[in-house]
Design a protein that fits this description.
207 residues; alpha/beta; Rossmann fold; 5-stranded parallel sheet; globular
Length: 207
């Protein structure tokens, strides 16, 4: 059983070599790899997250970094840089293009790997050093892309994990600084929270 995680820096989590998917990083992917392989040593976990990626950055590397890896379970977390880059670099991805490109990725995956289980994780944002000043923008635009992701999950029959809801519920036990410093990138407890939520969605073979 091969698990592939795709996305941006949240998934990458300081991988030493982004060209090698066996480099798991220091975040939720490594935590899940430990949990999954503890119970199933034959399971293989790969991390193809690349820091700074928008959905449009996934497209040119999709064949090499996804389809040709033949995952049995594919998880995608993308969307926050599509918002962030527009605000700070004026090269984000507007919502209609975000949906169009994401749909291409899912269609190509369904055609090439019809037996692959897909888990889409909706983008999240919290208050932090990078988001406070433009909070209304971050909240609105991230929510739009999260809804697109949810809609595509329904359209393509994939699993869906709403990470905004996950963190909102966690705020009842610990404030935002427990989970993130800048509002996007996660502390170790933040990564653990994603790992736990993912396992609930996956629902088998792990604790």
């Amino acid at each position: 059983m091969r698990f592939l995680f795709q996305g941006d820096s949240i998934t990458e989590a300081v991988r030493g070599n982004c060209s090698d998917p066996r480099e798991l990083g220091r975040g939720y992917v490594r935590m899940l790899a430990s949990d999954l392989t503890c119970w199933h040593p034959d399971y293989e976990v790969l991390n193809a997250g690349v820091g700074g990626n928008r959905v449009t950055d996934l497209l040119p590397r999709w064949r090499k970094d996804c389809l040709e890896l033949y995952p049995d379970v594919l998880t995608i977390l993308i969307g926050i840089n599509d918002v962030w880059h527009e605000l700070f670099n004026q090269n984000g991805v507007e919502a209609p293009l975000f949906e169009e490109v994401y749909r291409i990725l899912l269609r190509e995956t369904r055609e090439a790997l019809p037996g692959t289980r897909i888990i889409l994780m909706g983008a999240y944002v919290m208050h932090g050093s990078a988001t406070n000043e433009k909070w209304d923008y971050f909240e609105k635009e991230t929510a739009i892309r999260r809804e697109i992701t949810r809609k595509l999950a329904e359209e393509y029959g994939t699993d869906y994990l709403d990470l905004q809801k996950t963190f909102q519920e966690a705020l009842g036990t610990c404030p935002e600084e427990c989970w993130t410093g800048d509002g996007v990138h996660l502390t170790p407890p933040g990564h653990r929270l994603i790992a736990q939520a993912w396992k609930k969605v996956y629902g088998q073979g792990c604790v």
